[in-house]
Amino acid sequence: MHKPIIALDFPSWEDTREFLQGFHGEPLYVKVGMELFYQTGPGLIASLKEMGHDIFLDLKLHDIPNTVRQSMKGLAALDVNMVNVHAAGGSEMMEAALEGLDAGTRAGRERPALIAVTQLTSTSETQMQKEQGILKPLRESVLDYAALAYESGLDGVVCSALEARDIMDRIGAAFLKVTPGIRLAGDGASDQKRVVTPERARELGATAIVVGRSITKAADPYTAYLKVKQQWGKE
Ligand SMILES: O=C(O)c1cc(=O)[nH]c(=O)n1[C@@H]1O[C@H](COP(=O)(O)O)[C@@H](O)[C@H]1O
Fold it and tell me: Which InterPro entries does this chain map to (predicted)?
């Protein structure tokens, strides 16, 4: 769980395979998001598993409880390590997601960890207040969503590392804090608003980091990955 999670945000399996060839067969923790999954379909998951990689399937479900329950049943059968929903879907939806995962997990297999997105790392406090009508500090909104996810029985949240310490203090160390919005020093933030380096994420108490463009767009992705891994300092 602790190795950096690489976001495979690519448009095709060919691009993904080419990228992974540069990692010399090293077993990785990868994240498959909407861009890749919608192009390739579920077959991709089996291919990545055959290559020995752990998988965070990031489809950020957010729908009525029944739809989420049934969809999670299908995702559980893919036997990935972690999946997610949006906490904004509410406690009933998050509980339904867990029920679906439990129902869909094959005998003898471990249920995928279920985490909830709090406030996307591309959201700023001003945006949140203006566009979502949440009139409190962003930190508080993240904490409230984390508490709701915890009360709904989830294993953790997706947040910025900037909020990890507060969540740990309020909910405890075992609750996962999976943190995207990671950049190597000198890399542009692009669409991300709440950004930290791998080293800072560790200091702030993140459980895991999710890194996309600082690795995938680097001139030498494997060297960038090793740099991220060294700065992050966990295996
Ligand atoms: O759930 C996620 O993985 C996620 C949540 C969030 O709040 N912010 C966020 O950036 N992500 C994902 O993390 C990855 C970050 O990519 P980079 O910004 O390129 O490092 C993307 O694949 C996003 O979809």
Answer: Aldolase_TIM, OMPdecase, OMPdecase_AS, OMPdecase_bac, OMPdeCOase_dom, RibuloseP-bd_barrel
